Amino acid sequence: MAIAGIDRGSHVLVFPYPAQGHMLSLLDLTHQLAVRGVFITILVTPNNLPALSSLLSAHPTTIATLVLPLPPHPSIPPGIENTKDLPASGFKSLMVALGDLHNPLLDWFRNHPTPPVAIVSDMFLGWTHHLACQLGIPRYTFSPSGALALSVILSLWRYPPKRADPRNENEMIRFPKVPNSPEYPWWQLSPVYRSYVEGDPTSEFIKDGLLANFASWGIVINSFTELERVYIDYLKEELGHDRVFAVGPLLPPANKTIERGGPSSKSILSWLDTCEAQSVVYVCFGTQAVLTNNQMAVVAMGLEKSLVKFVWSVKEPTVGHVAGEYGKIPAGFEDRVAGRGVVVTGWAPQVAILSHDAVGAFLTHCGWNSIMEAVAAEVLMLTWPMSADQFSNATLLHELKMGIKASEGPQTVPDSGQLSELFSKSVSDKTRGESERAKEFGWAAKEAISENGSSWKEFDRLVVNFSH
Ligand SMILES: *[C@@H]1O[C@H](CO)[C@@H](O)[C@H](O)[C@H]1NC(C)=O
Ligand SMILES: *[C@@H]1O[C@H](CO)[C@@H](O)[C@H](O)[C@H]1NC(C)=O
Ligand SMILES: *[C@@H]1O[C@H](CO)[C@@H](O)[C@H](O)[C@H]1NC(C)=O
User: Whose CA is nearest to atom 7 of ligand 2?
Assistant: First the structure.
């Protein structure tokens, strides 16, 4: 296994959690580690192996794979190994099933001639902290969310808030220790936390894993100092050490951005080439959220009335959606907006779209990866957080004045008139203030990841840890 030029001491195990939003950014991180000469083994289950293909072909001699079968779980059908093929609640079962890899992984380590000297694993794999302790090596938690998100999660599990009235979903929960004292109604808090049942084995396993994340040797965050300094400092203070590494924004290598889209990629990008700078609104609600038909109708009407140019990436309903109630593009819509807008079903090359000069605003569900991509692309965000863990992402954008609220909540149907006004405002002079802020943070993001920038240095600081 020895590889010329690679220090034996810098072999690291990377273990992603198989959900799109978690995996892509950890693979982008892995690419960066490989570029810095770290020798890596990536652990995946068999059906997730294809997701590694471009990474493996880019680093044939520095990245190896460890493929272990997914241990069986009563709620996971055989052959299913990724959250995208499970109903929304399936991510917990997958966390539990992956937990059963503890012993096979321990055996692998013990039989390896030059085993990894550190583990970098997703925050949904908190149990790897215990494994690392058994092996006497450091484990680094990978957080696909930002530092504010992580601060709120840490606070929730370390200092569980007392509820005055457990039946009141709207009760405000305050986080006085977190900088800027954020507060959220109960229903907007992490669903993992809200669904915790004391004594229930799944709940206890997940709780233990989340707390283990904070007990781990270090934490690597997909964010950057200039964006979230106060929250990064807060985490260091809470953890009692400074091994919190803000290495973001983690992005695909420049020439890979188009690959992350489907076959329609080239035609969308050439259509954007024909549009004026910052004249297009991009609409996408991420890989999980699917709009109800009422919400679809309102977004369509808003786009139609606003007369703006747009690209709308529409997610088709998947497992767990009642047939016929979700994701329907209103009849005749595409004809009425022909020439002015593009509707993409299936995969859109999001990074390439956002980075295109023509795109000036982005209606987003506020998933952290989307935010990082939009920040790096200097695009103003119109926020519509959907699932219960995206609300603080939206708060951060409002706080930093580079995001404008469009709506919130998975059931809300906003007013199409207001939406239409917001769309036209977002690509006009009326939002110049926010657009300027978005540009400033975009420059800061590019600076952060370029040579000697803050995230660049954080990477160096991280890699130095591996060679000890
Ligand atoms: C931001 O969104 C991501 C999901 O995309 C979530 O994991 C994270 O917890 C959110 N952050 C906050 C602060 O809610
Ligand atoms: C992509 O870019 C990297 C460095 O930026 C380069 O090493 C690689 O050869 C490029 N790949 C292709 C397919 O152009
Ligand atoms: C980065 O820092 C190193 C060491 O201080 C210096 O030699 C190098 O020129 C710097 N690179 C850039 C692009 O500023």
Answer: 58
List strand residue ranges (DSSP E) for 165-258, in order. Answer: 172-174, 183-185, 218-221, 244-246
Pocket test for ligand 3, best of 446, 452, 459 (most atoms within 8 A of CB): 452
Residues with CB under 6 A from ligand 1: 21, 145, 148-149, 152, 367-368, 389-393
Q: List the domain range (segments joined by +) for residue 246.
A: 11-255+448-466
Evaluate if residue 260 carries a pLDDT over 70. Answer: no
Task: Give the CATH number, domain containing residue 189.
Answer: 3.40.50.2000
Query: Closest ligand to 251 CA?
Result: 2
Q: Domain check: are 249 and 300 in the same one?
A: no
Within a domain: 4: no
DSSP E strand boundaries for 102-201: 118-122, 139-143, 172-174, 183-185
The mean of the pLDDT values for the chain is 91
Residues 303, 163: one domain? no
pLDDT digits (tens, 9 = 90+) for 375-420: 999 999 999 998 766 777 788 888 889 999 999 988 899 999 999 9
DSSP per-residue letters across 322-352: PTTSB-PPPTTHHHHTTTTEEEEES---HHH
pTM here is 0.88
Residues 40 and 184 in one domain: yes
Cα-to-chain-centroid distance, residue 323: 27
Which ligand 1 atom is nearest residue 369's CA?
Answer: 5
Cα 268 to Cα 281, 350, 402: the distances in Å are 13, 11, 26
Number of structural domains found in the chain: 2
Q: How far is the CA of 390 from the centre of ligand 1 (A)?
A: 4
Does the CB atom of residue 411 touch ligand 3 within 6 A?
no
Whether residue 147 sits in one domain with residue 220: yes
